[in-house]
């Protein structure tokens, strides 16, 4: 599996029609869960994880929204939504477009929606600097959207925010807006490098901007069980994060990395592939955990200087 950051526009888009629903619906959370999916290290499967978990939960009957906060727009590409000429999350952050106006339906998924990125989002890091409450722009917009959806009787069950591979203002906005932090960790050399910095940013945001934010979920990506290195990384993460880890590794799979080039997630591109099955299992585990999730319970055991 290669991170969808590396994909371009769909080379041969196929229309997604009649996405299958799961025979067994997924557990509905007690309340709305907002995930920030972050890792400042590129190429770890962050965007791929975001879109496939969102698609899986939507297939399980849960109302799900993906916010593409990465200027590269790869989550928008993978979900097959327009993100070149239209207004998106950048205009929302700048206060020029109401957030309700930029929500797009994802084809073939009755319960999945997306707020796209666009090329203008690359300017956000600079333009946000001079704004009042710059770290809370996304949080305020999401609160506005959630209230509107609830008033209309179509409230979300899950919101996923796909972050850029950095720890700048966009990622801080995502941290401030979410309740839960999901970190994809690549099962390769240097997988845990930079994790300490990410957790330091998380701790600062939790202390100063968002006391409700919890590191709730870690997912292993690009796993090749034939290699000692992948198993060593998995064992290290399992040791440091026994409560946060969902111990269902996502295999390195060609079909997962092919899917975005067709403007799809692997859940519709090849739902019977090992990667799709793994993401479906992870999504179901997330849904099961959501029934009794306690945002105040979190353990951060990874200390600076500890090796993989």
Notable traits:
8-stranded mixed sheet; 308 residues; 11 helices; 8 strands; disordered N terminus; Rossmann fold
Give the helix/strand layout.
Elements: E1 33-37, H1 46-59, E2 64-68, H2 74-78, H3 89-94, E3 103-105, E4 112-115, H4 124-127, H5 137-151, E5 158-162, H6 169-177, E6 180-186, H7 195-208, E7 214-221, H8 228-240, E8 245-246, H9 254-258, H10 266-269, H11 274-290
Parallel strand pairs: 1-5, 1-6, 2-4, 2-5, 6-7, 7-8
Antiparallel strand pairs: 3-4
Helix pairs in contact: 1-11, 5-6
Strand order of the largest sheet: 3-4-2-5-1-6-7-8
Order of helices and strands: EHEHHEEHHEHEHEHEHHH
**Termini, distance in Å?**
21 Å
Low-confidence stretches: 1-8, 295-308
Main beta-sheet annotation: 8 strands, mixed
CATH class: Alpha Beta
Supply Rg.
18 Å
Number of extended strands? 8
Strand content: 5-15%
Structural class of the helix and strand makeup? alpha/beta
Number of DSSP helical runs = 11
CATH architecture: 3-Layer(aba) Sandwich
User: Can you tell me the overall shape?
Assistant: globular
Question: What report would you give on this structure?
Answer:
With 308 residues, this protein is α/β, with parallel strands linked by helices. The protein has one domain: Rossmann fold (3-Layer(aba) Sandwich). Helices cover 34% and strands 13% of the residues. The protein has helices at 46-59, 74-78, 89-94, 124-127, 137-151, 169-177, 195-208, 228-240, 254-258, 266-269, 274-290, and strands at residues 33-37, 64-68, 103-105, 112-115, 158-162, 180-186, 214-221, 245-246. The chain has an 8-stranded mixed beta sheet, with helices on both faces. Strand 7, helix 8 and strand 8 (245-246) form a beta-alpha-beta unit. Residues 1-8 and 295-308 have low confidence and may be disordered.
């Amino acid at each position: 599996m290669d991170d969808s950051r590396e994909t371009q526009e769909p080379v041969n888009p196929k229309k997604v029609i009649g996405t299958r629903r799961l025979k067994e619906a997924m557990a509905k959370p007690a309340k709305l869960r907002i995930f920030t999916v972050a890792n400042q290290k590129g190429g770890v499967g962050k965007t791929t994880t975001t879109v496939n978990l969102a698609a899986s939960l939507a297939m399980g009957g849960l109302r799900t929204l993906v916010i593409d906060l990465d200027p590269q727009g790869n989550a928008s590409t993978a979900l097959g939504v327009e993100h070149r000429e239209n207004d998106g999350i950048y205009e929302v952050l700048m206060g020029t477009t109401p957030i309700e106006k930029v929500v797009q339906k994802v084809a073939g998924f009755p319960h999945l929606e997306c707020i796209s990125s666009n090329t203008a989002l690359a300017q956000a890091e600079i333009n946000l600097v001079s704004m009042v409450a710059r770290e809370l722009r996304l949080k305020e917009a999401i609160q506005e959207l959630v209230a509107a959806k609830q008033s209309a009787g179509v409230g979300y069950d899950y919101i996923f925010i796909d972050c850029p591979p950095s720890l700048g203002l966009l990622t801080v906005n995502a941290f401030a807006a979410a309740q839960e932090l999901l970190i994809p960790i690549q099962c390769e050399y240097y997988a845990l490098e930079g994790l300490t910095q990410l957790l330091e940013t998380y701790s600062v945001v939790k202390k100063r901007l968002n006391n409700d934010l919890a590191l709730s979920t870690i997912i292993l990506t690009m796993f090749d069980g034939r290699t000692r290195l992948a198993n060593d990384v998995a064992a290290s993460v399992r040791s440091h994060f026994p409560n946060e880890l969902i111990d269902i590794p996502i295999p390195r799979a060609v079909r997962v990395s092919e899917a975005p080039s067709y403007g799809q997630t692997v859940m519709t591109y090849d739902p019977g592939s090992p990667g799709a099955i793994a993401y479906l299992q992870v999504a179901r585990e997330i849904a099961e955990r959501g029934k009794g999730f306690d945002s105040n319970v979190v353990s951060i055991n990874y200390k600076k200087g500890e090796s993989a």
